[in-house]
Amino acid sequence: MPPSGTADPELLALELSDPPPPTDRRAVPASATSPGDPFAGGSAPLPGSAGEHLLQAAYGTEQRARRFYDEQVLDHLNPRMREFIGRMELAFVATADARGECDSTLRAGPPGFVEVLGERHLAYPEYRGNGVHASLGNISENPHVGILLVDFAEALIGLHVNGKARIVEDGDLRAIHPSLPTGSAPGRSPQRWVVVQVEEAYLHCRKHIPRLVPMPHERSWGTDDARRKGGDYFDAKETDRPWRRATQPA
């Protein structure tokens, strides 16, 4: 059947349903299993959320998804993944607060700025920034993070790393891992680190990744110069907002 752009009422209710209560077990829907399947009846968890398993059943993609879980999803970083992380210069980080309100951000540095601490842990540095601490604030309420690292220049491949994070001061982490670099970015020293316990690691396919050619570029590491940081590029400075009105004197 060709796509119609609308969903049946039953499917729409599933797509827009309220989130299930928190659980550490991600049971597999009976409809997503077959007789003799070791996962039948929800006897063991699969990677992913209950929501994705339900939608796989609704959309008829259980077999494709199961093949991906079986062939690509790990609960640790294998040697090839660790080598990949060690040459990445940027990472996209997704977090959410206790209410599930989301934020995504970019972290960047010289190759290897994301430190692999072992097959089940990695860490990325937090430098002095704008003082908002949006990502760290989310992590302090909700430890679940999603990291996407992409090689845009050579392999045209990506790596997802999902897990639980905690904030560790630089000195505390350095006491445990004394080999951490002190100046991974020129003129910048980490104030603290986000340490991620890996729960899922899996491939992001190259099909729609654009090839980007690195160009020589002088980076203003650690600058406080507003113009060099981008200034008011989006003309936001003079735009009214409710919290500004609420704090202005009558």
In summary, what is this structure?
Helices cover 22% and strands 23% of the residues.
Explain the overall architecture.
Helix content is 22%, strand content 23%. It has 250 residues and is an alpha+beta fold. The chain is globular and about 55 Å long.
What is the share of helical residues? 10-25%
Largest sheet at a glance? 7 strands, antiparallel
Radius of gyration: 22 Å
> Which parts are unreliable, with pLDDT below 50 for 5 consecutive residues or more?
24-29, 31-43
What's the tally of helices?
A: 7
| Biggest sheet strand line-up | 2-1-5-6-7-4-3
SSE pattern: HHHHEEEEHEEHEH
Arithmetic mean of pLDDT? 83
Share in β-strands: 15-25%
N-to-C CA distance: 61 Å
**Net shape:** globular
Class from helix and strand fractions: alpha+beta
Number of strands: 7
What labels would you give this structure?
250 residues, alpha+beta, 7-stranded antiparallel sheet, 7 strands
Which helices and strands, and how do they pair?
Blueprint lengths: L8 H7 L34 H10 L2 H11 L6 H7 L4 E7 L5 E7 L6 E4 L2 E6 L7 H8 L2 E8 L5 E13 H7 L15 E13 L37 H6 L3
